[in-house]
Amino acid sequence: MKKGVTQRISPRRGAKVSLRMQSLGSPLLDPYSLTPHPTHLPLHRTTHSKMDSNHQLDITDANEDWLLTETVAIESREGRVWSKHSDEESIQGIRYITEDLISRLTKQDNLAFVRSLNLAVTKSGDKKFKFIENLEKCEHLQILNVSHNVIEKIEKLEKLHNLRELHLSNNIIHKIEGLEHMASLQLLNLSSNDIGHVPLWLAKKLRSLQTLNLQRNKISSLHELSRLKPLKNLTELTLAENPIANLPHYRLFLVFHLRSLETLDGQPISQEEREQAPQRFQMEEIERLEQDLECRVAEIGRLQSEQVAAVEELEQQEELIDQLQLKSLQQQHCQAQQKQELDTKTELVGIYLSMHALTQTQTERKRHTH
């Protein structure tokens, strides 16, 4: 088969075929054979999901209209994979994920029993999914494949706490988000998207992650990838066809920082690389730590200065408050004195008026007597 040609596997007319994706780490099987497909490359095995043996998808003539076919990409070591459908003009419209569609695909009335769901759309001209939605009842779902669609945002997966594999390759996703709750996730395939950054929370939240595929994205920072160091179970990482893959010592840098890696871009980590990585980056790491230490010391000094300034400002505010409280007490004392003086004057006026009235009364009586 020529390089750059995509082969589609479709069922023979009238034949009943059971499509089953194999377990993580095993090659994709030909639908008509129990032997590995000869054109399958290990680099792309993470782009396929495995199907639970209790939830196989039977394909007959009656349901060919919603058949989700598998695409096997052919690639030489120097070549480029052409499995992504970039021709959006061939899309005939948008399709929506509904509970009824999930029931028909999985042949399950109770969605709580669904363990594996394949919503990948690779058939040219088929309607594609734009939104991830209506998966709340699939609370025991372990494998979800929504590859080869036009999804822009990872969302509405909060109920899928048991998810182990998530395939979102060949979409138009710009940001890794909405996965913070997936502590059980072991495989994350985001190849062929528009992702430019690896978030800081990824290594803290996805502690069970073993396989991460970010091939053919826009990642350009090796420093961001060093944040994956806490992922002690990460054994397989794919970053080919990103800008960082062209940087010098790219492999050695990742081998040095991600000690648990066994495979990088489909190639096993050699013992020679493990020996060269510390020699190449140990001194740089020490220098970087020294620079970080200097920056931290400067930051501590700045914070201490800010703390002293804040304490002085607080003391000034407390002094001002004391002055205001003293002034308030003085005003209250002055008001009390003024009230007391006013009461005394009022009392004296009352006495004067009483005595004046008494004097007038006595004068009247003397006048009448005479």
CATH class of the largest domain: Alpha Beta
Largest beta sheet, briefly? 8 strands, mixed
Return Rg in Å.
39 Å
Which fold name is given in CATH as the topology of the largest domain? Leucine-rich repeat, LRR (right-handed beta-alpha superhelix)
* Residue share in β-strands: 5-15%
The number of E-state strands comes to 14
Shape assignment: elongated
Strand neighbour order, sheet with most strands: 6-8-9-10-11-12-13-14
- Give helix % range: 25-40%
Structural class: alpha/beta
The CATH architecture term of the largest domain is Alpha-Beta Horseshoe
Mean pLDDT: 76
What does this entry look like structurally?
Residues 286-327 form a coiled coil. InterPro entries: Cilia_flagella_integrity, Leu-rich_rpt, Leu-rich_rpt_typical-subtyp, LRR_dom_sf. It comes from Oncorhynchus tshawytscha. This is Centriolin. Keywords: Coiled coil, Leucine-rich repeat, Repeat. This protein is α/β, with parallel strands linked by helices and 370 residues long. It has two domains: 7-269, Ribonuclease Inhibitor (Leucine-rich repeat, LRR (right-handed beta-alpha superhelix), Alpha-Beta Horseshoe); 282-365. 33% of the residues lie in helices and 10% in strands. The protein has five helices and 14 strands. It has helices at 99-106, 202-205, 222-225, 250-257, 271-369; strands spanning 7-9, 17-19, 57-59, 70-72, 94-95, 116-118, 128-129, 143-145, 165-167, 187-189, 211-213, 236-238, 263-264, 267-268. It has an eight-stranded mixed sheet with strand order 6-8-9-10-11-12-13-14. Strands 1-4 form a two-stranded antiparallel ribbon. It has a two-stranded antiparallel ribbon with strand order 2-3. Helix 3 (222-225) links the parallel strand 11 (211-213) and strand 12 (236-238). Helix 4 (250-257) packs across helix 5. The protein is elongated, with a radius of gyration of 39 Å. The model is unreliable at 1-91 (pLDDT under 50).
